[in-house]
Amino acid sequence: MSADADRFLLRWAGWSIPRKAFFVLIVGVVVAALGYVFSAALRSTQFYRYLKASERGWTDRVFTGDDELGFAPVHGSAGRELLPMVPPIPARFDADGFRIPDAPPPEPALRRALLALGCSWTYGAACRAEDTFALRAAAALGLRPLNAGVPSYGLAQMVLLARRLVPRERPAYVLVQYSEWLVRRSQSWVADTEYGYVPTPFFAAAPEGVRLHPPLFRGWAFDLPVSAYRRSVAGIFDYLAFTGRAGMPLIVHDDFQMAVLLARRRLGGLPAPGGAEEILKASYSEIAELCRRSGARMVVVLLGPEPPAAWRAWLAGLPGVTLVDAAAALCARLPSGCTNPMPLADDGYVRAYAHWAGAPPRQIDLHPNPVAHAVIAEEIVRAISIEQGGAVSHPLEPPRSRRE
C-alpha cells in the first residue's frame, strides 16, 4: 500500500491527514457530542425537577424577550406570581405594558399621570398592584398611575423606558428608583432571572464616559413554554415533552450564545462595562433632562442601602429633581431604627417590612410588603405636597391586609 493510499486528501485546504489520525478525530468529535448531549439532558432533568418543586416563579407567559430591553412584560397579559404558603398574586399588564390591578377601576383618559421607573421594588414583587407605592402615591395625588417597574431591571432599561415613555405620556411626575443594585445590573450582560441566560442592555465604557449597548443576543428563557410545565402533571410523557419543547432547546441555545460571547471576549471583541459613577450620572441626568423637556417633575426615590455621600449630594443637586429618602423613612418608623447599614440584613427592618406567612410566621420574601409600600408612598406624597404648598388631592388610605 502506498503512502498516498494511507491518507485522506482534504482538497479544499490542500492538507493530507493520516487515516488513523482522521479516525481518532472523528471518534473524539462523536464522544464529545454524546458527552454534551448527556450533560444537557442531565441539566434539563434538573431543570424539570426544579420547576416541579419550586414554590416561586410566574404562571402563564407575562414576560417575553425584547431586542431593546432584553425582556419586557407581554402587553395585555395576565398571570400569577407564585410564593410559598400564600395564594398566587395577580400579575397583570395593560396594553402599554404597565402593571395594573387584577380588576382595574376605570380611569379618565385625559388625567395627567404619575410614571414610575424601577425594578421589582417599584413593580411591587409579592404585593398586589394596588398596594404598591406607585399606585398608592398616584391615588393620593389624583393622578393616573403608570407603573413601569419590572423585576430584575437595571438603570439601562430605566433609561430606555424613560426615552420612550416620558415624551409620549408627558406625566406630571416621574418616580425614579435609586438602589445600588440598579447601577450594578447596568454593568452586566445578563439579568438576574430564575432560569436561563437573559441578556440585557448595559452601559459600556466609552471615550466620553459611557454609552448604552444593546443586548448581546436574544434570550429564549421567556419565549419557550417553560411556565406550562410548572403545574402540569409530572410523569414520563410530561418530562419528555418538557425536555423536547423547553429544557433542551433553552440549554443548547444558551450554551451556544455564551460560548460565542466568551470567545468574543477573549478576542477583545466585547466592550468593557462602564464605571459605576459614570453610569449613575449619565442615567439620572438624562432622565432629568427628559423630564424637564416634557414638563414633568422627577422624583428620585432612595431605596435600599444609603448611597455614597458623593452620589447622594450629586442626586440632590440635579436641577428640577426632588429627592425622597424612603429608606430613611422606613428605618425611622422602627422602634430602634435600623442598626445595620444594610436594611435587608437588619432584623428589625426584616420583621417589619418583609413578607411573612404561616404559623409560626416564616419569612417568605424580602421585597417590601404593603406596610413598607405605604410608608414609601407617604414620603413621596409628603415631598410633593411640600412643593405644592401642602395641597394633596386625596389622603392616603391605610395599607390593606396582605391577602385581603
Please state the second-level CATH architecture of the domain at 86-187 and 275-387.
Answer: 3-Layer(aba) Sandwich
> Structural class, please?
alpha/beta
What form results from the Cα inertia axes?
Answer: globular
Order of helices and strands: EEHEEEEEEEHHEHEHEEHHEHEHHEEH
Largest sheet: 5 strands, parallel
User: How much of the residues is beta strand, in percent?
Assistant: 15-25%
* CATH structural fold name of the domain at 86-187 and 275-387: Rossmann fold
Question: How many H/I helical runs?
Answer: 11
| Order of strands in the sheet with most strands | 10-9-11-14-15
**pLDDT < 50 runs, ≥5 residues:** 8-13
Measured between the Cα atoms of the first and last residue, the distance is 87 Å
CATH secondary-structure class of the domain at 86-187 and 275-387 = Alpha Beta
Radius of gyration: 25 Å
Instruction: Give the % helix.
Output: 25-40%
Average of pLDDT? 89
CATH homology-level superfamily of the domain at 86-187 and 275-387: SGNH hydrolase
Q: Let me know the number of strands.
A: 17
